Structure formats: C-alpha cells, structure tokens
Amino acid sequence: MVDNNIDLRSEIRRLAKEKNAVIMAHYYVDGAVQDIADFIGDSLALAQQAAKTDADIIVLCGVHFMGETAAILCPDKKVLVPDVNATCSLAESCPADKFAEFVAEHPGHTVISYVNTTAATKAVTDVVVTSSNARQIVESFPEDTPIIFGPDQNLGGYINSITGRNMLLWNGACHVHARFSVEKILELKAAHPKAKVLVHPECKGPVVKLADKVGSTAALLKYAIADDASEFIVATESGILHEMQKSAPNKTFIPAPPDDATCACNECEYMKMVTLEKLYLCLKNEEPVVKVDADIAAKAIRPINKMLEISQKLGL
Ligand code: 13P
Ligand code: SF4
Fold this sequence. Notes:
Largest sheet: 4 strands, parallel
Structural class: alpha/beta
CATH class of the largest domain: Alpha Beta
Strand content: 5-15%
Number of strands: 12
CATH architecture of the largest domain: 3-Layer(aba) Sandwich
Distance between the termini: 42 Å
Mean pLDDT: 97
Helix content: 40-55%
Low-confidence stretches: none
Strand order of the largest sheet: 2-1-3-4
CATH topology of the largest domain: Rossmann fold
Radius of gyration: 19 Å
Order of helices and strands: HEHEHEHEHHEHEHEHEHEHEHEHEHH
CATH superfamily of the largest domain: NadA-like
Bound molecules: 1,3-dihydroxyacetonephosphate, iron/sulfur cluster
C-alpha cells in the first residue's frame, strides 16, 4: 500500500529523473497515467520509441506483450510494467504451440503476426505488424505470396478486404473490440447525425463497414484532429478519448458502447489495471521486471526488427 500523504505525481517524476527512467504509455491506459508519461503512443510508436531510447529503465504502461517487445528490443535495459497480470485477450487467443502447429500444417507460407502476441508466438513469425502498418507490410510482399496472418481474424479479414489478398487467418479476436455492435453505433448515429464514425480494425467486419475512418489509435487521433467534423463516435477502447479531447478540446467525442451496454464506454480491463499507484511502486521498487527467455528473444527479435525496418523504409 502507498502512504496517502505521498504526492504520487511528483514522486513518480522524481523517481523517473533520479533513475534515468522513461515512462511510456499506450493511449488505452487511464488518463492520469497518460498525463504523467514521457511518451504516449500506439503499439507501433511505443516499439519505435523503445528501440531508440537512451534511458536506463523503460516503464511500459500498457499490457504485457508491449513490455515484452520493449525487453526484446532493449536486452541491456531494465524493462518494467506496473502490473504483470495486465495481459491481452488477443495475445492469449494464440498460444505459441498451437500457432506453431498451424504454421507447420501450411508449409510455404510467410507468417505475419500482429504485435498483440506473446514473445513465443512472435518467435514462430516472419514479420510482425501493428494496426498502423499492417496494410503496407502485407503489400510489401508480392501479390502471390501465400500468407498466414494471426492472431486477429478481424484485422486480418479487414486487410484481406482492402488488399484483395487471401491470407489464411488464425481465429483470434480482442474481446473489447469484438463487443462493439452495429445496432448501438447506428443508435448513436441517429442521435448525432453529423458525427463521423472512427473504428479500430480489431472490430468485426460489419462495424468496420460503418466507419468514416478505420485506423490504429494513432491514425484515429490524427484524423479526429485534422477533420472538419465537430463530433465523432469512437469505436475503440475508450482510453483514446482522453488524448482526443486534449488535442481537440472544441470537438465532441462520443464513446461507442459495448453490445450489452453495461456501461457507456468500452474499456479494456487489462489496460485499466495500470494505475498511478502501481506505476509509483514499480518505479520505486524496480519491479516487476519483464523477462523473456533468451532463446525465444533471439527468435522474436528478427520479425520485430523486420517490422521496424520496413516501417522506416515506408516512412511510417
Ligand atoms: P494500436 O495501438 O495499434 O492502435 O492497437 C490497439 C490495441 O489493441 C493495443 O492493444
Ligand atoms: Fe488486448 Fe484488446 Fe485490451 Fe488491446 S484492447 S490490450 S487487443 S484485450
């Protein structure tokens, strides 16, 4: 437990400075954590930032696979996550041994994996992608390349539909994005007819079809800032609304609810496990440290670096 008299914000900043630690946060974590971070971004930006930081300690405020990616990219640094139990349903939907069997059953395929995977799944992958670069990386392979895409069948199906490819899909999904429904978004559209609909490609196909803009969290944020519309219905984890509202204070952002409408917003309970209190304790105690088995890391770094190289070449 943390003493109530402690000013968490100033202590976190003091500890980060004293220990030469960089605090990185994904757009889905609690707004208070995003506000204290040195850097906020989507999955691609977090990996790119980790690869180039000169800090001694990286504190990754996000889910476990994000910490693993940073640890694989920075074997000489200490990588911490505020809560080691903050996993990801999409990563969990693709156990490495089962994925390796699937790959072995389809010889001759290039294996493309979404970054939302464990290090062990990345180790049986040829190139990693994020929602920011999936289309461009898939298109960087000749059209007739047989491709396995895992684990997100929604993102994979979307990329198939916009590229005309016929990638073989693993049948995983994110439980948060799978919860958005056409019906609820149409209800919001009826109440806000001028609102543009922003959709993350982890959503199901019929929801993606309602979108004015489909993209990663960073792409949706950029669109919301630049677009002329003043209202937006946002179909992705509701943490992104924090930065949208900060970056475009005169615009209205309406979170799309989950299909059971138990709440107005659709939250990832794993991302929301990251709190200011846990961030403080993790910096203070320098734990939990993200550890990746050396053999797995040696295999997983290749497809991650390949993603970073292609992204750099494409200016992403
Ligand atoms: P991006 O960060 O690529 O938008 O992906 C969203 C996500 O689900 C991260 O877990
Ligand atoms: Fe994983 Fe979905 Fe949460 Fe993103 S929102 S971390 S994909 S469970």
